[in-house]
Amino acid sequence: MLSATSGAVRIGARRVAPRAASVVVAPMPKAPLGRITNITNITNIAQARSLSSTARLSYAINNTNPNPPLGEKNASNETPSRIGLIGARGYTGQALIDLLNAHPNMDLRHVSSRELNGQELKGYTKRKIIYENLSPEEVAQLDKDGKVDCWVMALPNGVCQPFVQALGQSSSLIIDLSADYRFDDAWGSYGLPELVQRSKIAQSTRISCPGCYATGSQLALAPILEHLGAAPATVFGVSGYSGAGTKPSPKNDVKLLHDNLMPYSLTGHIHEREISHHLGVPIAFIPHCSSWFRGISLTINIPLNKTMTSRDIRQIYQDRYAGEKLVKVVSEAPFVKSIQGKHGVEIGGFAVDSTGKRVVVCATIDNLNKGAATQCLQNMNLALGYGEYQGIPIE
Ligand SMILES: NC(=O)c1ccc[n+]([C@@H]2O[C@H](COP(=O)([O-])OP(=O)(O)OC[C@H]3O[C@@H](n4cnc5c(N)ncnc54)[C@H](OP(=O)(O)O)[C@@H]3O)[C@@H](O)[C@H]2O)c1
């Protein structure tokens, strides 16, 4: 069993987190498009490319990523944090419980579900926990009593506001997995550590986790934004049915999905807005659902503003993500079956057409891992003062 921590220790731990914030993030490149103020981008790529290969290797590792991982530099807190999880029965809640169970510093204390109220939590071995059906008032009381350091909301869109409101100005960390605060810059940080300044996330007490499609799409588009042509890039996305959550709907109806590919929300999907909002350029997103359980495949058609080669483009991505442990740049288009159960994103393909002014980039992501629970844990690690990748199985 893990030992208890006091609120004072937790707050103290948060207070030392800014130590990590002193890590220098390379200067922003000229913002090509719109409001990309939070999102870091490629820099000095041409300079990197003109170096000798040995010099370039070390340059790539050290300098081409303007927002390098904080990794162990973020580890300033040696005391476990107590976690409360609201929406624990769902797919993302369960994926997070598995990760917390293996994490040396996360001490799950409360799990809330209306359906499982009174039952014992299975699959968590660090202590015995019984599901509760916590109201916003009960959450606020537990928080006031100093029983929890971090609240995770794994609730459907539009449900968590009463909980967040009840917590008010609490100094506890709140991480929301829904879309409710993803467009609210005043609420807190948008928790996409590879693209948003990690030091900002590390200092936040309110973090909104990006959507699953939106994480994969932004990671697959951000490095090439500077070279985006006039027409919007189009993301063709296919998700396994766990992306639709546990509430029965056509999108998780296994019989309907068998031998089938289901197009839905073909314009105006919330992730179309999210990707466009955070990248600062309009992006077209056409989602589909299919019969596998977990994993997303994205095929992205990107018009370019100049002639480029596949090799140039792949190099830009490799440079941008140098040192990242959860983003892998590969040559071939990645397969969704290879990403299932994995914790990162794979980006590849980089097929350029005969004009040299259009590239197709492919990406895969496990929607429940880097698309939800793994990214949530990465953000928790950053904001609670642990090593950025602690408890995340890295390949
Ligand atoms: N699934 C994904 O791939 C994915 C990826 C990224 C982000 N997300 C986002 O993460 C959130 C959770 O997704 P999920 O797939 O885990 O959903 P889910 O499987 O449908 O689970 C939803 C959870 O919320 C609880 N819940 C539902 N309505 C509630 C209400 N009115 N009041 C209190 N609790 C309620 C449910 O438990 P009880 O009914 O037992 O209370 C359950 O634990 C969603 O906002 C989703 O958009 C999902």
From TrEMBL:
PROSITE patterns: ARGC (PS01224). It holds the Pfam family Semialdhyde_dhC_1. Residues 82-202 form the Semialdehyde dehydrogenase NAD-binding domain. The active site is at C212. One of its GO terms (molecular function) is NAD binding. Keywords: Amino-acid biosynthesis, Arginine biosynthesis, NADP, Oxidoreductase. GO terms for biological process: L-arginine biosynthetic process. Pathway: Amino-acid biosynthesis; L-arginine biosynthesis; N(2)-acetyl-L-ornithine from L-glutamate: step 3/4. PANTHER family: N-ACETYL-GAMMA-GLUTAMYL-PHOSPHATE REDUCTASE, CHLOROPLASTIC-RELATED, N-ACETYL-GAMMA-GLUTAMYL-PHOSPHATE REDUCTASE, CHLOROPLASTIC-RELATED-RELATED. NCBIfam families: argC. This is Semialdehyde dehydrogenase NAD-binding domain-containing protein. The lineage of its organism: Eukaryota, Fungi, Dikarya, Ascomycota, Pezizomycotina.
